[in-house]
Write the structure tokens for this entry.
Amino acid sequence: MPAIAVIGAGPRGTGILERLAANHPELGGGPLDVHLIDPYPPGAGRIWRHAQSPLLAMNSMAADVTMYTDESVVCEGPIRPGPSFWDWAREHADPAAFEPELAAELRSITASSFPSRRLQSRYLEWVLADLLAHLPDGVRVHFHRTRAIGLADDGAAQVVELEEGAPLRVDAVVLASGHLDATPTDDELALLEHARQHGLVYLPPEQTSDSDLSVLVPGETVLVRGMGLAFIDLLVLLYEGRGGRFEPEGDGLRYVPSGQEPYIVAGSPRGMPYHAKTHYDLRGGPPPLPRFLGDAQVGAFLDAGEPIDLRRQVWPLMAKEIAWGWYHELFQGHPDRVRLPWAEFAEAFAAADWDGPEMRALIEHAVPDPVDRIDLAALHSPLAGVIAPDLDALQPIVRAKIAEDLRQHVDPAHTPHLGAFVAMLSVYAQAARIMGSGLLTPRSEAEDVSWWQGFFNGVASGPPGFRVRELLALSEAGFVRFLGAGMAIEAVPEGFRATSATLPTAPPVQARALVEARLPDPSASRSTDALLASLVRAGEVVEAVIVDHDDTVLRNTGQIRTRPSDGAIVDATGRVHPRRFAAGPHTTVKLPGAFTRPGTNSLSFRHNDALARAVLKVMTGASQAAA
């Protein structure tokens, strides 16, 4: 019987299963076995498993999460709508089936709530159960709560070796394991060895919820490098997780300590946390997207076949598209704050080059208040130009910037931020086609792709407002201090010393503990996943290494090479394996999260569909060969 192995049964694996089931009747039909392999709970997987701190929350609102395709998704396969998280919470979830804490959360949830990860776990489990209840005739799903540790060709068959249980013989394999752990880099190994020799504490990059934070001693200073979502999780676990609490005070919060807290000094390249999530709806309706970076513009780049510089050639269109989303919402949702009708502004905006004198003059005339004008440079580098004499002087500056950012992301007077966010989702999908085309110059691929991903994450992947209020309260109480942008670490026998570009003349901050508050960079060669490591050793999986025209290595991405169109795995010789596929952050195909905001033509769903259809065509060939 034709069979597929999907290694990874979290949201990515579930999404691929959904697309396999949706496309199966068209592409062959008949009997099919699908094996889902994962040591973590199916549906939720590792990141969203129920067995984690109840304090950890999503950074998406309940209404902004779905696992189902909708009419906005442009793909070859059939659309199979289903409930978003918010729909599920209102119409399908039964509080009586949950433990008291989750039942209480479910009863109080609203469309704009940021659910706990444990409640998201229940949604993901329900989605998987819903898929299983509606499988096409002949499709059977088998679960293996273990790890896949090896993969080999045996003629046309793929043999998957399991840590526990007999090997599986299948016709195709999909690697969908999500974020993978990796052994430390050389620099991280040096810091680990330094900590070992001098009795210090160093926590290398990993999932914060899996870290042993007990080594961080109450009352001691801890240096933290990284201020993204892992940083927010770290604060939750070290403060409220150790018995502290937040109480209302004026318009904000006051932190009441438990006595078990360390003191954190945090920095990063940007020196600021990610921008807060928006807490409002669009007033002017969805912006018409794509407008300046659509199929025609992307097609022109691809059809020309010439080398592409992302920052020089594509970014002006990307930036103009993001600004289009911002100004559409400003003019349509807040017409009292502009000097021109939308139609007149839109025509002039479309005719002007981005960041040219005509565009600047148009915006200055039409948008009188500078706070209503989008500033992409400030969004990316909010501390650019900020210099402080010492750490104490910097704190109120950074707090004021964080507080203003929060205000604009929760006050409905500033919904243009949401218009820009929606446009960024469109830009992400269109730019991914160019980045996956193989036409970027080596320098652009080595530098600009990571720059864009960092920009996108900083603007679009931030924490909910209540987490930002907690961060401000911790800062006001003196438990969290900000080091600024351009953080640098030096190892000395007494500990670790931290400096930053924002504090060029200040003395270094020294501590006995250093935490890397981020996930490991993708690295197939350093992966702790036994299956992936074995494929790398055999040359059957290869990392994408960016080489300049003179053979200079510019960057090793650490990501495994896959065919952009369908995720088929490319080996060290450049051969595309006809029966092996991969999707997720460990591959060269740039995708956002495994679940998405409804109505946004999700790139992840589109790629899942293309991958599933390619796999099912392998199945059709296997069936014909068997006959």
In short: Confidence is low (pLDDT under 50) at residues 623-627. The longest helix spans residues 310-333. DSSP finds 17 helices and 21 strands in the chain. The radius of gyration is 25 Å.
